[in-house]
Amino acid sequence: MASLRKDIKSSSNLLVRTFKTFGKPLDYSVESLRHIESFLDKELINGQPKKGSFLSSGLGSKIFAIGAYTGEVIIKNSNGSKWETDDKDPQGEINVAITSLNGTTIWPVQRVMKRIMNGKEDDLFVYVKAAVEQHMKYDGEVPAGFDDVKPESKWWKFW
Description:
The chain is mostly helical.
């Protein structure tokens, strides 16, 4: 079983490779979310995938991949932000969050789900731009080890 952090990285990378085959390069810039918005506009009708579209099968894993990419864009474009995951959470893929040293927490996968259900009113480009420029902004120095992953303690180790 892979960890959610590994799943985030691999899903995000897979989305980048997939969009490259569509002729829509994703480079982890905020602007690259415009490609995803355009893609969602073409793939969805009233919050549902069009019949025979790319999203019409395996929707859950594709939502996760778009959310993972969205989160990676936020982290790469804002100082002092990191993923918060819980591999024991049965809905961990939905509940992955990004926290900032400024105290803000956001949930990118949940935001992608809202975008799919509500359409353009929950535009991902606008969301990420606001997150990077305002909500996740941190101007201080990031402490050493801020994004270190704590090893999971083993239940059989008592000492």
